[in-house]
Design a protein that fits this description.
- It is a single chain.
- The protein is of the alpha+beta class and 438 residues long.
- The chain has two domains: 4-80 and 97-178 and 297-436, 3-Layer(bba) Sandwich (FAD/NAD(P)-binding domain); 188-288, no CATH class.
- 29% of the residues lie in helices and 23% in strands.
- It contains eleven helices and 22 strands.
- The protein has helices at 16-26, 69-80, 101-115, 162-166, 195-198, 203-215, 252-276, 308-313, 374-380, 383-403, 412-421, and strands spanning 4-12, 32-35, 52-53, 64-65, 84-88, 95-99, 118-120, 124-131, 134-142, 145-156, 171-173, 188-191, 227-230, 237-240, 284-288, 298-300, 320-324, 328-330, 338-340, 348-351, 363-365, 429-430.
- The strands form seven sheets. Strands 1, 2, 7, 8, 9, 10 and 21 form a seven-stranded mixed sheet that branches. A four-stranded antiparallel sheet has the order 13-14-12-15, with helices on one face. The chain has a three-stranded antiparallel sheet with strand order 3-6-5.
- The radius of gyration is 21 Å and the shape is globular.
- The model has no long low-confidence stretch (mean pLDDT 95).
Length: 438
């Protein structure tokens, strides 16, 4: 075992939630260590090929901005570098921000380092131990071997709740409630696409072409519909089409099989696009995500479990730390996606308690592994909300340390005041987004 490192706040996972946690905490002057298993920040926003932030704006004719703060600062930096644009979501879930993934990697890194956090890539956490009611020793693994990190507060932003689960915190594994786990997707990109012809078709027309092609027997297409969209680079098109259902992504063997199946499907969908879709006649497969996209694994059983009814009814909470107007988007095992939209202009709030575990007092959980049911997680897992949860978690950790209390003892009102001071949105407001559209 290697040397023991110490830090004020340890953030595990450099995806949307973890990156914002590290930035928010480090900006308040605390010693922060962010560790990430891959070689860049962004998680699903980069390594899994997802090039769009969903959840910043609400759907409907009158659009509301529901996420701000440091999270929206990321968007502004992308826009300033002409590395992002706003577009209407394919399925009507509101304006979304599509960006250049390579620039997002750089911006995330710059913001983390400028905030003063330490960053360690190619480092994973194979084990975490509980010391009474606290996360004690966190074992890290990288090319130097095994080491230990001890932190006053730990933020689990792994997406799979790896740290919390290893330390013995209670969780629900996706699928255990009888609902099928959300399907996995391997994202890919096609180059040399004629954008004008490819995007002249409506989504209904695209779906019809895919249905007819699948019914013909010439192609094996497990998902009908899906999404293709333009990127900041003409002729370079994002494709979110594949579907690998019924996978427990915490099982390494099952996840390995899913990676192989996802790449197999990419080949089939690329062939379909080249042969059947207008504008793809001369296109070629340019890039396949290095890692398959996982939507749901472990979910925390925290102080409050956000429910599908909370989403539908637009629930508001006294300890709210983030807002969401995104629909329930359930990628079930069938060929389509189950969408359940909120009423126009409606939103719900994510409570701070949904980031707090029941047992471990120095732990905060942020991102898609928040305390939520299957249905609620299918809405709250959007990237803007994961960043907002991360920002809240990092801010809460810093405030708790400064006050000498545990995260669970922190006054939610104080946390909300500090979040509002950094322009976090807890009361969405109507915005004019048309000027942002290209």
């Amino acid at each position: 075992m290697g040397a023991i490192a110490t830090t004020d706040i340890l953030v595990v996972g450099g995806g949307a939630a973890g990156t914002l946690s590290a930035i928010a905490a480090a900006r308040r002057g605390h010693k922060v260590l962010l560790i990430e298993a891959q070689g860049c920040l962004g998680g699903s926003r980069t390594m899994m090929g997802v090039d769009t932030f969903n959840g910043f704006f609400s759907p409907g004719e009158r659009t509301y901005q529901v996420v701000g703060g440091i999270s929206y600062e990321v968007v502004q930096k992308l826009m300033a570098r002409k590395a992002a644009f706003v577009r209407e979501n394919t399925f009507g879930s509101g304006p979304v921000v599509t960006y250049e993934m390579e620039q997002l990697k750089i911006i995330y890194e710059e913001m983390v380092l400028e905030a003063g956090a330490d960053l360690l890539f190619h480092t994973s956490v194979p084990q975490a131990a509980a010391d009474s009611d606290r996360v004690g020793q966190v074992t890290i693994c990288n090319k130097a071997g095994l080491g230990e990190v001890r932190a006053r507060i730990v933020i689990d932003a792994t997406g799979d709740m790896d740290v919390a689960a290893s330390a013995g915190e209670d969780f629900e594994l996706a699928g255990a409630d009888g609902r099928p786990v959300q399907s996995l997707t391997t994202v890919f990109y096609m180059a040399d696409v004629d954008n004008a012809r490819a995007f002249a078709l409506s989504q209904e027309e695209r779906t019809r072409i895919m249905q007819e092609a699948g019914a013909s027997g010439r192609y094996n297409l497990p998902r009908i519909g899906g999404s293709i969209h333009a990127t900041p680079h003409p002729g370079y098109v994002h494709a979110n089409l594949t579907r690998v259902p019924n996978v427990d992504a915490t099982n390494p063997a099952a996840l390995t099989r899913a990676e192989i199946e996802g790449r197999r499907q990419v080949q089939e969908y690329a062939r379909f696009l080249q042969n059947e879709y207008p504008g793809f006649e001369h296109a070629y497969l340019a890039w396949t995500a290095p890692t398959i996209g996982v939507r749901e694994t472990r979910r925390l059983k925290g102080r409050y479990v956000l429910t599908g009814e909370d989403v539908r009814q637009g629930a508001k909470f006294e300890d709210a730390v983030a807002c969401c107007a995104a629909p329930i988007e359930d990628h079930h095992a069938g060929t389509d996606v189950r969408w359940e939209f909120l009423e126009a202009g409606a939103h719900y709030q994510i409570p701070y308690r949904s980031l707090l575990p029941l047992r471990l007092t120095n732990l905060i959980v942020a991102g898609r592994c928040l305390s939520a049911t299957h249905e609620a997680q299918a809405s709250a897992r959007n990237s803007a909300q994961c960043m907002a949860m991360g920002e809240a978690a990092g801010t809460a950790a810093a405030l708790a340390l400064s006050a000498g209390v545990s995260p669970g003892e922190l006054d939610p009102g104080e946390l909300q005041r500090e979040l509002r001071a950094q322009h976090v949105i807890l009361e969405p407001f109507p915005v004019e987004t048309r000027s942002l559209f290209q």
